Amino acid sequence: MNADDVGGVHIKYLYHCPRQLWLYLRGVRPEHLSGAVRLGEAVHETSYARSSPVDLGAAKLDFIDGQHWVHEVKSSTRPTPADQAQGRHYCYRLEQIGIDAKGAILHYPKTRRTHRYPYTPEAAGQAQADIAEVIGVAAAPTSPARLARSACRGCSFTDYCWTE
């Protein structure tokens, strides 16, 4: 895996659980069995329907506005570090192709809230560090340690981590 192969889902999984990222990179994809994933897809499909997704190869963002703000629709009720990292990653990807992204606006339709995160030089540096960390997890010969079981609540990968 190289830096160009790292997409938003990789960044999200890195922040959520490195083991989840490691399994995903090896083709373990149980998301279709998860009610939470299906809910997220439904929220995404019914929110901001007039917007067009932007395909950057490995990274696919929900939409970008005329002011160059990245918009991401989330099914959760509040921001997480993974959400912020994903928005930062998309800004970095846009910067790599010559688009001066202003930052990320995360939309939470369930609570009708938005959170704005400007894209700064520090954010760009963190985005590069995140990509390097994803590549490191991808190269690891064995899976990272699993998280505490309480952190796995609702994760579609639980059976892969906790079945003895």
From TrEMBL:
Residues 8-162 form the DUF83 domain. It comes from the Bacteria. Pfam families: Cas_Cas4. This is Dna2/Cas4 domain-containing protein.
